[in-house]
C-alpha cells in the first residue's frame, strides 16, 4: 500500500500541487528564477567554452580543408618536393600562416593564410572570387603584392568602404593590404571564422618574414597508408617539426584551455547549488504549511509514495519552468560572457575571437539534466519527511511552525567528517597529482559548513537568551523554525563563502603578482611590438633597434626577450629566449640562486617556469630532451623560477644556447635600464621617431607596464566577478523567500500578537530582526567557510590546475566588513 500509485493521483496532483502553485505565484516565481539563473549561467559558460574551441577549430579547418595529415613547424621549402614523392601521398600543398594585428583596435587580428595557387585545390573548403563577385583574377593574385582575400562578414564589419585598404601591423611594421578578393566558404565550419584572410604564398612569405620557409604542408594520404607515410616523413623533417592529423592541433588547444574552462564551469555550478537550497526551502515550507492536508490524505488511504510524488512533482514543475527559462536566457547571457572569455584566452593562450555562439543538443541535455536533477534532489528530503509523517500526530492541534523541526543531531558530526574529507582530498590532489580532487575538496568544505549551520543557529539562540526580549524573541523564532532556516542560512552562507573565497584568492593572487613584478620588472623602460600583446603573436623588433638603443646616452643595459611555441612531450608549451637579463630579475624557487643562474648561463643549461615544472613533473637537475631543427637536444634544468605570465609553462634559455640549436632570431621585446636622471618617456618618443610612430610599438615605463599587467589581470577575472555577483543575488532572493514563507506560515501567530496589542511596526520589526539575525549568522559561517575555501582555491586548485604557488593573504578589512553589507541586504530582502 505504501508504494502504490492509484488512478486518482493525477487529479490529486492538480488539486494539491498545481492549485497551490497557482495561489502562490511569488514563491513559484522565486523558485523558477533561481533555477533559471543557475541553468542559464551553467549553459552560458558551456556555450562560451564550446564557441571558443569551435572558433579555433574553424581556423584549423579553414586552413587544412580536407587534408588528413599535416607537417607543421619551421620547414625549409626545399623539403616539399621530397615529401610529395613519398609513396601514399596523393596531394601536398604548402601553407604559410601568420597573425596580423589591427592598429588602433586592441584585441582585433587577422589570421593570414599564404596559399599556393598551383596545388591543393581539392583540399580547400572555400573558393576565391572577385570583390564584386566577379571571376577570380589569377594574374592579379600573382602580380599584386598587397592583394588579399577576406570573408564577406569581415568586410562588412571592418571595411565600410570596400575600396579602402586594410591597415595591419605585421612584424612591427604597418602595411596596407588591398581586399581585392573574397573568400566564399563552402560549409558552415569555414564560415565560422570570419577573421581569416588569404593571399599568394610568395607574397605572404615576404609579408610575414618567412622567405624560404613554410609553416605547414597539407597532405591528402590514402587512409590505409597514413601510418607508413607519417613514419617516412618524420625521417625527412627536423625533430621539432610535427607530423600528424590537423585535428590534433585542436585537441592540443582544448587540452591547454581545459583547466581554465573547467574552473569557469565549476564557478557556474555555484548558482545551481544556491538555487537547490531555495527549492529545498520552498518544498520544506510547503510540507509545513500543508501538514494538515498531508495527515488527512494519509488517513484517507494515500500511500507514502503518492505523498512523496506530490512534493517531488511540485519541485519538478518549478524545475521544468526554471530550466526552460534558463535555456532561453543562456544565449543572451553567453553573448555577454563570450567577450571577456575570448579576451582572457587571447591574453593568456592564443589569439581568439568568439564571433558565433554554438549551442548543441548535448549541452541543452546537460543543462536540463542539471536543472531538473537539482530540483528533484532538493525536494527529496522534505518530500520524504512528508511521506513518513504520522496522521495522528499532524492532525493534533498545535503550532504549525515547529512540526517538522526534527534535525538529526549527527549533522554536526557529519559536518566535521566532511571537513576532514575536504582536507584529505586537498592533500591528495597535490601529492597524487589528481587535479579534480581539488574541486572535491571545495565541495566538502561547503557541505561541511552547511551541516554546521543548525548548530550555529541553536548556539546563537542560546547566547541571546540574556538579551532584551525584542532580540530574544527573534532568535527563538529562528530556532523554532530551525529545519528551514538552516537551509536559508546555509544558502546565503554558501554565496558569501564563494564571494569571500574568490575575493581572497584574487587578493592573494594580486599580492603574489605584485611581489613577482617588484622583483622581476626592475628595468626603467620596456619596448615591444604592439602586436605581441596578443598571446599568439611573435613579432620581432627592427634588427637595428638594439644597436641604436645601446648607443643612446644614459642606457646602462638592454635585455631582450623572445618567445616561440614549443612542442614538448606531445603538449604545447612555450620556449623563451633571453639575453642580458640580470640575475636579480629571476625569482628562483628552491636551491641556490647563484648556482641556478650560473647553470642557466652555461652551455646546455635551461631554467623552467613553475607551471612547466608542475605540468611535466620536472625537477632541478633533470635532463630534458627537446626537439630542435638540428635534432633532439639535451638540456639540464638548472633551476625553477616563479612566473605568472603563462600557465602553460615556459622553458627559458639564453640566446647563445638558442642560436646553437635553432639559429639566429630577432628580439620581440626589450627591457632598458637607464642611468639616474635619464627621461624614459623622452627616450621612448625618440625610439618612435626613429622606427615608427604609427602605433606599431608598445612602449611602457616601469609604472605604466605594471598598470597594464594589472589591467590584464582584472580582465582575466571579469567573468569570475559576474558569476560571483549572480550567486549573491540568488542567495539574497533566498532570504526574501524564507521571510515570505515565515510570514505566510505564521499568520495565526501574527494574528494573536496583533490581538493582544502588538502594533504593525512591532510585527515588522520582529521580522526585520529575524532577517538581520539570518544575515549575521550567515556572515559568520560564510566568512569562516570562505576562508577555508580560499585556502583550497589558492593552495590546491590553482596549484593543481595552473602550477602556480600563491601566497595566501587575507584582506582583513573585507572579512570584517562582510556583515556590514550582508545584514542590511538580508533585512532589505
Describe the structure.
It is a single chain. With 829 residues, the protein is an alpha+beta fold. The protein has 27 helices and 19 strands. The strands form two sheets. Strands 1, 2, 3, 4, 5, 6, 7, 8, 9 and 10 form a ten-stranded mixed sheet that branches. A hairpin with a 2-residue loop joins strand 12 and strand 13 (571-579). Helix 2 (25-64) runs antiparallel to helix 9 (247-289), helix 17 packs across helix 26 and helix 26 crosses helix 27 (812-828). The longest helix is centred in the middle third of the chain and has 45 residues, at 304-348. Residues 398-406 have low confidence and may be disordered.
Q: Largest sheet at a glance?
A: 10 strands, mixed
Q: Residue-averaged pLDDT, rounded?
A: 81
Helical residues, percent: 55-70%
Structure classification:
alpha+beta
**Number of E-state strands:** 19
So how many helices?
A: 27
Low-confidence stretches: 398-406
Beta-strand percentage range: 15-25%
Cα gyration radius (Å): 32 Å
**What is the terminal-to-terminal distance?**
44 Å
Rough shape? elongated
List keywords for this structure.
829 residues, alpha+beta, ten-stranded mixed β-sheet, nine-stranded mixed β-sheet, 58% helix
Give the structure's gist in a few sentences.
The chain is α+β, with helices and mostly antiparallel strands and 829 residues long.
What layout of secondary structure does this protein have?
Blueprint: H1 9-23, H2 25-64, E1 69-76, H3 80-84, E2 89-101, E3 109-115, E4 126-130, H4 138-143, E5 147-151, H5 152-158, E6 166-170, E7 173-185, H6 188-191, E8 196-200, H7 201-208, E9 213-221, H8 226-236, E10 242-244, H9 247-289, H10 291-299, H11 304-348, H12 361-387, H13 391-394, H14 411-431, H15 437-463, H16 469-480, H17 482-520, E11 525-529, H18 545-550, E12 555-568, E13 571-579, H19 593-601, E14 605-609, H20 610-616, E15 623-628, E16 631-641, E17 650-654, H21 655-662, E18 669-674, H22 680-691, E19 697-701, H23 702-716, H24 718-745, H25 747-755, H26 760-802, H27 812-828
Parallel strand pairs: 3-8, 5-7, 13-17, 14-16
Antiparallel strand pairs: 1-9, 1-10, 2-3, 2-9, 4-7, 5-8, 6-7, 11-18, 11-19, 12-13, 12-18, 14-17, 15-16
Helix pairs in contact: 1-11, 2-9, 2-11, 2-12, 2-24, 9-11, 9-12, 9-17, 9-24, 11-12, 14-15, 14-26, 15-16, 15-17, 15-26, 16-26, 17-24, 17-26, 26-27
Amino acid at each position: 500500500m505504501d508504494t502504490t500509485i492509484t488512478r486518482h493521483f493525477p487529479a490529486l496532483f492538480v488539486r494539491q500541487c498545481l492549485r497551490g502553485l497557482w495561489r502562490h505565484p511569488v514563491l513559484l516565481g522565486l523558485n523558477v528564477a533561481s533555477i533559471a539563473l543557475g541553468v542559464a549561467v551553467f549553459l552560458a559558460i558551456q556555450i562560451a567554452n564550446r564557441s571558443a574551441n569551435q572558433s579555433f577549430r574553424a581556423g584549423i579547418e579553414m586552413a587544412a580543408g580536407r587534408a588528413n595529415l599535416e607537417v607543421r613547424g619551421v620547414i625549409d621549402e626545399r623539403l616539399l618536393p621530397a615529401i610529395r614523392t613519398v609513396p601514399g601521398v596523393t596531394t601536398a600543398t604548402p601553407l604559410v600562416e601568420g597573425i596580423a594585428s589591427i592598429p588602433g583596435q586592441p584585441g582585433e587580428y587577422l589570421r593570414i593564410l599564404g596559399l599556393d595557387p598551383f596545388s591543393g585545390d581539392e583540399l580547400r573548403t572555400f573558393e576565391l572570387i572577385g570583390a564584386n563577385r566577379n571571376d577570380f583574377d589569377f594574374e592579379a593574385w600573382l602580380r599584386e603584392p598587397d592583394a588579399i582575400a577576406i570573408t564577406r562578414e569581415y568586410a562588412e564589419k571592418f571595411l565600410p568602404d570596400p575600396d579602402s585598404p586594410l591597415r595591419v601591423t605585421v612584424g612591427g611594421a604597418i602595411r596596407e593590404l588591398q581586399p581585392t578578393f573574397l573568400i566564399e566558404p563552402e560549409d558552415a565550419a569555414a564560415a565560422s571564422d570570419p577573421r581569416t584572410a588569404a593571399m599568394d604564398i610568395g607574397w605572404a612569405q615576404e609579408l610575414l618574414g618567412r622567405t624560404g620557409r613554410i609553416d605547414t604542408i597539407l597532405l591528402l594520404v590514402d587512409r590505409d597508408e597514413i601510418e607508413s607515410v607519417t613514419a617516412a616523413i618524420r625521417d625527412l623533417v627536423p625533430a621539432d617539426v610535427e607530423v600528424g592529423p590537423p585535428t590534433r592541433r585542436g585537441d592540443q588547444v582544448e587540452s591547454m584551455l581545459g583547466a581554465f574552462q573547467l574552473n569557469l564551469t565549476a564557478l557556474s555550478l555555484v548558482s545551481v547549488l544556491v538555487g537547490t537550497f531555495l527549492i529545498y526551502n520552498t518544498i520544506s515550507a510547503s510540507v509545513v504549511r500543508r501538514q494538515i492536508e498531508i495527515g488527512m490524505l494519509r488517513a484517507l488511504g494515500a500511500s507514502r509514495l503518492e505523498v512523496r510524488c506530490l512534493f517531488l512533482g511540485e519541485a519538478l514543475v518549478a524545475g521544468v519552468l526554471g530550466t526552460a527559462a534558463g535555456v532561453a536566457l543562456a544565449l543572451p547571457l553567453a553573448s555577454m560572457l563570450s567577450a571577456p572569455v575570448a579576451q582572457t584566452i587571447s591574453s593568456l593562450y592564443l589569439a581568439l575571437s568568439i564571433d558565433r555562439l554554438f549551442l548543441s543538443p548535448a549541452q541543452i541535455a546537460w543543462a536540463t539534466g542539471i536543472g531538473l536533477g537539482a530540483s528533484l534532489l532538493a525536494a527529496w528530503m522534505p518530500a520524504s519527511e512528508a511521506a513518513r509523517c504520522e496522521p495522528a500526530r499532524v492532525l493534533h492541534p498545535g503550532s504549525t511552525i515547529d512540526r517538522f523541526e526534527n534535525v538529526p543531531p549527527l549533522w554536526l558530526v557529519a559536518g566535521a567528517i566532511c571537513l576532514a574529507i575536504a582536507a584529505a582530498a586537498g592533500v591528495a590532489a597535490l601529492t597524487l597529482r589528481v587535479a579534480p580532487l581539488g574541486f572535491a575538496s571545495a565541495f566538502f568544505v561547503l557541505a561541511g559548513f552547511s551541516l554546521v549551520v543548525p548548530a550555529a543557529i541553536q548556539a546563537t539562540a542560546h547566547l541571546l537568551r540574556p538579551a532584551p526580549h525584542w532580540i530574544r524573541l527573534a532568535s527563538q523564532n529562528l530556532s523554532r523554525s530551525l529545519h528551514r532556516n538552516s537551509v536559508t542560512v546555509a544558502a546565503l552562507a554558501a554565496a558569501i563563502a564563494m564571494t569571500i573565497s574568490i575575493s581572497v584568492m584574487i587578493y592573494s593572487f594580486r599580492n603574489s603578482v605584485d611581489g613577482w613584478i617588484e622583483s622581476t620588472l626592475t628595468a626603467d623602460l620596456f619596448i615591444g611590438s604592439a602586436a605581441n600583446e596578443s598571446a599568439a603573436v611573435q613579432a620581432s623588433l627592427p634588427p637595428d633597434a638594439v644597436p641604436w638603443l645601446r648607443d643612446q646616452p644614459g642606457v646602462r643595459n638592454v635585455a631582450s626577450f623572445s618567445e616561440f611555441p614549443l612542442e614538448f612531450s606531445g603538449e604545447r608549451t612555450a620556449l623563451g629566449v633571453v639575453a642580458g637579463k640580470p640575475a636579480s630579475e629571476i625569482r628562483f624557487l628552491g636551491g641556490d640562486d647563484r648556482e641556478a643562474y650560473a647553470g642557466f648561463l652555461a652551455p646546455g643549461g635551461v631554467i623552467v617556469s613553475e607551471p612547466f615544472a608542475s605540468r611535466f613533473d620536472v625537477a632541478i637537475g633533470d635532463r630534458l630532451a627537446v626537439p630542435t631543427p638540428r635534432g633532439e637536444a639535451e638540456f639540464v634544468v638548472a633551476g625553477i623560477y616563479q612566473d605568472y605570465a603563462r600557465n602553460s609553462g615556459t622553458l627559458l634559455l639564453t640566446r647563445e644556447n638558442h642560436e646553437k640549436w635553432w639559429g639566429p632570431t630577432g628580439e620581440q621585446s626589450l627591457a632598458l635600464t637607464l642611468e639616474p636622471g635619464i627621461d624614459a618617456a623622452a627616450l621612448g618618443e625618440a625610439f618612435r621617431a626613429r622606427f615608427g610612430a604609427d602605433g606599431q610599438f608598445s612602449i611602457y615605463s616601469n609604472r605604466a607596464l605594471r598598470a597594464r599587467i594589472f589591467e590584464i589581470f582584472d580582465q582575466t577575472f571579469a567573468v569570475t566577478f559576474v558569476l560571483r555577483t549572480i550567486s549573491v543575488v540568488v542567495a539574497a532572493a533566498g532570504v526574501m523567500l524564507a521571510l515570505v514563507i515565515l510570514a505566510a506560515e505564521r499568520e495565526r501567530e501574527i494574528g494573536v500578537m496583533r490581538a493582544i496589542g502588538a502594533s504593525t511596526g512591532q510585527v515588522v520589526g520582529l521580522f526585520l530582526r529575524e532577517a538581520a539575525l539570518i544575515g549575521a549568522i550567515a556572515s559568520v559561517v560564510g566568512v569562516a567557510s570562505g576562508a577555508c575555501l580560499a585556502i583550497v582555491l589558492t593552495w590546491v586548485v590553482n596549484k593543481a590546475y595552473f602550477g602556480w604557488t600563491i601566497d595566501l593573504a587575507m584582506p582583513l578589512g573585507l572579512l570584517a566588513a562582510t556583515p556590514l553589507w550582508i545584514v542590511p541586504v538580508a533585512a532589505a530582502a
